[in-house]
Design goal:
The complex is a heterodimer of chains A (590) and B (466). With 590 residues, chain A is of the alpha+beta class. Chain A is built from 16 helices and 26 strands. Chain A is globular. The termini of chain A are far apart. With 466 residues, chain B is of the alpha/beta class. Chain B is 34% helix and 21% strand. In chain B, helix 11 runs antiparallel to helix 12. Chain B starts with 7 loop residues before the first strand and ends with a helix. Classes of the chains: A alpha+beta (590), B alpha/beta (466). Strand 1 of chain A pairs antiparallel with strand 5 of chain B. The complex binds adenosine-5'-triphosphate and magnesium ion (MG).
Amino acid sequence: MLKGRIYRVSGPVVVAEDMRGVSVYEVVEVGNERLIGEVIGVEGDKAIIQVYEDTTGIQVGEPVYSTGYPLSAELGPGLIGSIFDGIQRPLTKLEELIGFFIKKGVKQPSLPRDKKWHFTPLVKQGDKVGPGDYLGYVQETEVVKHYIMVPHGVSGTIEWIASEGDYTVEEPVARISGREVTMLQKWPVRKPRPYREKLEPDKPLITGMRVVDFMFPLGIGGKAAIPGGFGTGKTVALQSFTKWSHAEITIYIGCGERGNEMADALHSFRKLIDPKTGKPMMERSVFIANTSNMPVAAREASVFLGVTIGEYFRDMGYNVLVVADSTSRWAEAMREISGRLEELPGEEGFPAYLGSRLASFYERSGYVKVYGNPERMGSLTIIGAVSPPGADFSEPVTQSTLRIVRALYALDVNLAYRRHYPAINWLTSYSLYIEKLREWWMQIDPEYPQLREFFSKTLQREAELEELVRLVGADALPVDDRLILEVARMIREDFLQQDALSLDDAYSPPYKDAWMAHAIKLFYDKAREAIDAGVPFEKIRELKVRERIARMKNIPSTTPREEMKKAFGELYNEIINEFNALIEEVKTRV
Amino acid sequence: MSSLLVRETHKLLRAQGSLLFVETIPGVKYGEIIEVELPSGEVKLGQVIDASKTMTVIQVFGGVSDVDLKRSKVRFRGETLKIPVSIDVLGRILDGLGRPIDKGPPIIPEEYRDINGEPLNPASRLPPSEFIETGISAIDGLFSIVRGQKLPIFSGSGLPHNRVAAQIVRQARVRGKEEKFAVVFAAIGVPYDDAMFFIDNFRKTGGLEHVVAVINTADAPVIERIATPRVALTIAEHLAWSHDMNVLVVMTDMTFYCEALRELSAAREEVPGRRGYPGYMYTDLATIYERAGKVAGRKGSVTQMPILTMPDDDITHPIPDLTGYITEGQIVFSRTMWLKGIYPPIDPLMSLSRLMKDGIGPGKTREDHHGVFMQLISSYAEGVRLRELSVIVGTESLTPRDRKYLEFADRFEREFINQGEYERRTIEETLDRAWNLLAILPEEELKKVKPEHIKKYHPKYKSLSS
Ligand SMILES: Nc1ncnc2c1ncn2[C@@H]1O[C@H](COP(=O)(O)OP(=O)(O)OP(=O)(O)O)[C@@H](O)[C@H]1O
Ligand SMILES: [Mg+2]
């Protein structure tokens, strides 16, 4: 262990001298308070350090200690249900120790050391094992079986395996060719955890949000961004993804955002019952909170910490969702550090490596075959919020992100002003996964491709007509176009709009999406038929069934599937009957 | 120990703008407060913003253009900026650094606190959920405030933000509760008259003993402006967390704060960000706004209502933009509304309260509140869209349905948003008023409200049942 001295302090950046031998990305302890920092550059005997805690009060000349380790995450039982700061300090534990303000220099292990976990072995003495193999498991919560895996870099013969019983994370549970293994593992956060093979996603990560699942589906293990101006719904969307998506483990990274939002998420995750497991959502979630008023440098680390924990659960064979709110704040942290280092600034002051750093985060997503026995797949899906200044998407963070992600959910200020939620713009958003997921959707509904096509064509046509409407008024348009406008409005209001606060509709299963889509398509088809039969358009507009369609989203998603099917069947009949009545009327008049 | 050492230097190397470069003395601390003593005996405060082995950079409050390098000296205080706090500050008027300026008796401190505060542990926070009734329909009905929230007013020059803020302070209450409350008012770079407007207002309504005013007027040193909101919040936190009080902090005008920050950054020769504002302005503002909240196990709370004027009424300007990215919503004033004679001139579409959902509903306001609010806003949005349309195509080409929407939008502005400066409406009055307006629209258009609420509150059915 090396010891140097502080040479210069400038905000979160500290320069230390007498540090020859220290390496980049090594963790150091700065000053008498031993604040945690990371070496981000070495010049001669000087080390440039970004400090993860407030540097106020630090003196030139105070000592700096190297640790020999890179910034690492602690992995093992105890992760689930926890809330950590950007450098994985356990925030609930800190509260017990020091009260409700976060003080610097306080050290606490990330995972509890005294807690005993019930370990059940899955191998026996004499077995040959390699990295990723299951050694055993701990039922960490009622819904998460936490597999204890052979660490990377370890392989050989099981000389000893602990018998079923209670152990702390530091007690050995196995000896593999002379090496003792505990349930606690460490992994450097900046280094991706390896896997055997990356696969193309062939199924979606169902999010429960119609505009995503039905219009712009996200592949499992995919990467997506959700940019939008303030108040357009990024956080609400990310929270509902973590609540309702079909992922088995969710990791919520609050990076440079609001404290009250984190509190809200924590409280609602403890309260809300996951429909898939019947248990509180907290029992499969991990939170990382480095709010906007917490030290800037730790924002940078928080994102990598979150994704490392995600990969760890992926390696067990789980489908993991990691959301980051907001990657812009993370990029700004990078900009601030870079500015202090007087690096050559790129666009809008962001460092030239902005793009590659963003990529090094998103590239850790994937649907993969992981290491170890039994053979298994795991996935890590990443969705990042982007907060462009002035809601202008031409800025560097949004643009760099767009070059990396494969699905874009573009939030639109004007939709948000009109309270069209989620304010995802259907014309500018896209998903490059659609082709790959078509097969999957066709198993839900064989007509999916036609329905989706119909929706997107109708909405596009509406946009084209808008200009004309502004000039001549809607009623001056040919009846075909008026029908398009009417149906487009139905698609927008009765299908795309989805209130995240509504208990009945916050989560919409894929079959409900499809049945709703059918109702609108049916309305359109019957309306065409009626128009051809000579029914005046006004009559169609006055149909009572329109209100029924408007309220179909409120059929609770918890309704048993067969019952829901029946409800939609009735709705279809009503649509058909009302139209047939209109057509009859015209016929008899003729 | 260190206090025994002489912690001062005469070796002033260079002065530039508000920066002073001095030789480093042993043990200089990053962020510590210094005193520059001029030959005249006058003392200026400053802060260490960069410390290295060879040189220390100090930012001096009030500027250093007049510093005589040879004959001045710098004394290091060894600590960051701290202010004395006490419950006795209630009823007092302080300057921007927290020193009494009202000729009252000295304040005996309970303790000294760093004006920068410490970040609240997110795991200790309680999600704010107590509805504050302001008596203003537009706010209570559409953008409800809850205790522990930070909800700014985005205004424009010449708009009545101070009057509205004063009305809120006058009328705000949490129903059914008699609890200790206080108002901390921070005037940041505003004209003296504006600051006095508030104080007179408090005096008139007899509420002065609940108020602390922290005043940095337009003619006070710019640098002091950086400290003013922090001083106000340090006092607020003390009252909330040590004295169980529910504190409302009104800060006006945050635009001047941001301009001071820009000036400071320019003086430090930092690479400017958007429109010259420093790249860290988001983080800097967050260290102010995030000091609102509620904490598990404590009775008190800090609620913030910052006021800012949008330069050129432009909401994408970095000041409102970054504020909106931090606060829990925004109440946006519109010049168009004001010119129509609407008070308070709130723009219903651009305004938003993000914590409203937890503060309203059965047991808090009324069961129909959420639905009514969503319905009002979306119907108004439709009305505004049609209004714009009808400018070109004329109202004749609109359908009867569309004309109802036009009528709704107009009357909504005149009868719901518009209200007297001294008029207080209960939340029930506000919601009933809303129903009377919604009754203009065809009933089948009311898709956002629950059918059972229509049956219960719609005037058509209400008059039948009563
Ligand atoms: N799907 C939704 N359903 C209902 N309300 C929504 C939805 N999406 C957004 N909202 C409303 O919009 C408000 C703002 O959303 P949110 O906090 O997610 O914005 P944001 O994009 O994260 O903003 P910022 O960048 O400032 O953090 C919410 O408080 C809520 O009132
Ligand atoms: Mg957000």
